[in-house]
Amino acid sequence: MRSLKEMLLASSWARELSENQLRSVIDGITVRTIPTGGYVCMKGEPVEYWMGVLDGLVKMASIWSTGKATSFLGLSTGGWFGEGSLLKDEPRKYDVIALRETRVAYMNRATFQWLHDNSIHFNRFLLIQLNERLGQFIGMMEHERLLDTDSRLARCLASLYNPVLYPESNLEIRISQEEIGLLAGISRQRVNQALRKLEDAGLLQIDYGSITILDLPGLRCFGE
């Protein structure tokens, strides 16, 4: 199990901090373990933290009072999220739910604001992160409207390997078909069919409890 400091040093913005600054940032972070199905944060609550996935897997989603739910994206080890809501200082617009037991780093508002006010590297990171996330959501809207289920699932998997948003991801991910279904918003049975099709196309290899990506560019453009 890796430490919070190890996670921070894997983030480009934290590597530029002095030892004293890094110590202050660590003091402003609380690590919590969220059980499978538990809420990392909830829609409508006040935004007091910036969050990072220390290890595990979560999904960003929205559950309406009618019971209808939609999944936006998956957030894997090394990914940070929630900066938009902090910068706008508004109630949270989405739920984040753990798909497996996950350790989450919660950076308090004061520490986030101190970094925002004092670190050029942190502000550059935020600019790149927000731009990358915007592109990700535009792509999701395009895929939802134009692609079939198999192609949407391919894009969903490929999105977990974004080197900007998830710098610690590798081409073998420990993920179940049930978790993929929760991320992509499709049934487990349909996930199995789509994965077999992608495996037959030579894009990935399915193992028990994990998937190895063999052709990431091919996965990103499957169905075009």
UniProtKB/TrEMBL annotation:
One of its GO terms (cellular component) is cytosol. InterPro entries: cNMP-bd_dom, cNMP-bd_dom_sf, Env_Response_Regulators, HTH_CRP, RmlC-like_jellyroll, WH-like_DNA-bd_sf, WH_DNA-bd_sf. Residues 147-217 form the HTH crp-type domain. The keyword Transcription regulation applies. Keywords: DNA-binding, Transcription, Transcription regulation. Residues 13-133 form the Cyclic nucleotide-binding domain. GO terms for molecular function: DNA binding; DNA-binding transcription factor activity. This is Transcriptional regulator, Crp/Fnr family. It comes from Candidatus Propionivibrio aalborgensis.
